[in-house]
TrEMBL record:
It catalyses: (2S,3S)-2-methylcitrate = 2-methyl-cis-aconitate + H2O. GO terms for molecular function: 2-methylcitrate dehydratase activity. Keywords: Lyase. This is 2-methylcitrate dehydratase. Signal peptide: none annotated. Residues 293-482 form the MmgE/PrpD C-terminal domain. Pfam families: MmgE_PrpD_C, MmgE_PrpD_N. Residues 20-271 form the MmgE/PrpD N-terminal domain. Its EC number is 4.2.1.79.
Length: 512
């Protein structure tokens, strides 16, 4: 890896293309270096992971809405169209709308992969737009499963490299501002586009996907699931415009009125962005990790610790009156974003939206502690949130920042990087229960790391309510053969729901 020095430049400095971050990102996208076998294997895992959470969310309101929008649009004339999760594979739509619908389905339950460093990310969000474009142009360009794998590896590499270096949330910019450029670059790799075209697409994608973090603050709305899908849709459109010769603001990052100067750390800012050398394998996907539980990633380890404590102290933790307080000593991010440090009263409100409870570690830890388990639907149900003993204990849970856990959270050493913390439970009789956890059980360094078997089981478990057994096996067969798929097989990278699975689900009407 090499470090690209990023800073703002006055217009009269005339920063050359070769010195611009967007040009360097385009260089990564055009590098024909072969993929390592473990990277290919992990790409397959993440395609399965995305489909699993999409299947689980297929009847939820935002997903139904996005799917109905997508299917209202015909296939564009430049290709054969792309598939939409939940619809028959023969029912295709324009690729940007397929990226939109599938992106919402993947993101709705906050249940797919993550990478956290200077910024937050869900790099699996790169997959829907890349697959959609591949399906659309498979016949025209002879695209294969191997091309998809290469595009996805680029998307992961660039988003994760940006996340390692550049904080967006510090300036209240939503994390999808790193996703637009990475998805555009991934599509560029998929299609074998030249560096200039990818450069222009990256600039346009960045310019159109910067937005505030209010989508993840306070009363969190259904837009939370739409935000990365929008970035994917914008990436598809940016690539289309760049292929037609249209240009972007230059230099997009470094300009005196650019992203760094006015949206991030200002005119005097500088960053060191790690990027692969030419000829160096793209391996960033291996630094990311998926979720065993449907919750914000910083909650994963805490759910596992709560399950452990539930099993070890059932008589004590069964009665909230026995507990005086529960304090989670954790990282800056966990405390200020999903903890009591956010000062969001909604995080303690039993009437809060699912999206809000998903970002409330006091709620999540309470329920996991009481139940000894976590379920993507039942744990968020209104009935569960309104249980009197839950509300009593919930209001005793607070978080505090611990400098050591913050340091480990931001460490670039994967071996010590941590997303958990230490819990101190003060009992009414004066006793204490103290325990800690560094990473989730499913993390590569956790107690039960996810491998292919766990990804496949996650898909079977989350899809069984909506897909026939035959459709589950068909999808798993196609997905696991991804690197060998021919152009005529790419349309199989989707699933159709079982007859009757969506009966009673109301399809909303809009403009289209």
């Amino acid at each position: 890896m090499h470090l690209h020095h990023l800073r703002t430049h006055r217009s009269d400095e005339n920063l050359a293309r070769e010195g611009q971050l967007a040009w360097k990102l385009a260089s990564v996208a055009t590098d024909p270096v072969e993929l390592d076998d473990d990277v290919v294997d992990m790409v397959v895992n993440r395609v399965i992971d995305n489909a699993a959470v999409a299947a689980a969310s297929i009847a939820r309101g935002p997903v139904v809405s996005a799917r109905s929008q997508a299917l209202a649009h015909p296939v564009s004339i430049g290709g054969d169209g792309a598939t939409v999760f939940g619809a028959d594979a023969a029912r295709r739509t324009s690729p940007e709308w397929a990226a939109w619908a599938n992106g919402v389905a993947v993101r709705e339950l906050d249940f797919h992969d993550t990478f956290l460093a200077a910024e937050y990310s869900h790099p699996g969000d790169n997959i829907p737009p890349i697959v959609a474009v591949a399906q659309h142009l498979a016949a025209n360009r002879g695209l294969t499963g191997r091309d998809i794998v290469r595009g996805i590896a680029t998307g992961y590499e660039i988003q994760i490299d940006l996340v390692k270096a550049i904080s967006l949330h510090k300036h209240k910019i939503d994390h999808v501002a790193h996703l637009g450029p990475s998805a555009a670059a991934g599509i560029g790799t998929l299609l074998g586009l030249d560096q200039e075209t990818i450069f222009q697409a990256i600039g346009q994608a960045l310019h159109t996907t910067t937005a505030t973090r209010q989508s993840r603050k306070g009363e969190i709305s259904t837009w939370k699931a739409h935000a990365p899908a929008f970035a994917g849709k914008m990436a598809v459109e940016a690539v289309d415009r760049a292929m037609r010769g249209q240009t972007s603001p230059v230099p997009i990052y470094e300009g005196e009125d650019g992203v760094v100067a006015w949206l991030l750390d200002g005119p005097d800012a500088s960053y060191e962005v790690p990027l692969p050398e030419v000829g160096e394998a793209k391996r960033a996907i291996l630094d990311s990790y998926t979720k065993e539980h449907s919750a914000e990633y910083q909650a994963q380890a805490w759910i596992d610790l709560a399950r452990k404590l539930h099993d070890e102290y059932p008589l004590i933790l069964d009665d909230p009156s026995r507990i005086e307080s529960i304090v989670l000593h954790t990282s800056h991010h966990t405390h200020y974003v999903i903890g009591s440090g956010a000062n969001d009263p909604q995080k303690y409100d039993p009437d809060a939206s699912r999206e809000t409870l998903d970002h409330s570690i006091p709620y999540i830890f309470t329920v996991a502690l009481q139940d000894g388990t976590w379920n993507h639907a039942e744990s968020y149900s209104p009935e569960r949130a309104h249980r009197a003993d839950t509300i009593e204990l919930w209001n005793k849970v607070t978080t505090v920042e611990d400098e050591e856990w913050t340091r480990r959270y931001h460490s670039n050493d994967i071996a010590e990087k941590a997303f958990g913390g230490r819990v101190v439970i003060k009992l009414a009789d004066g006793g204490e229960i103290v325990d800690e956890i560094a990473v989730a059980d499913a993390h590569p360094l956790g107690a039960r790391p996810f491998a292919r078997e766990q990804y496949v089981q996650k898909f079977r478990t989350l899809a069984e309510w909506a897909l026939t057994p035959e459709e589950i096996e068909r999808f798993l067969d196609v997905a696991q053969r991804l690197p060998e798929l021919g152009p005529d097989e790419l349309g199989g990278l989707t699933f159709n729901v079982a007859p009757g699975a969506l009966v009673g689900v109301e399809v909303p009407e809009g403009l289209f």
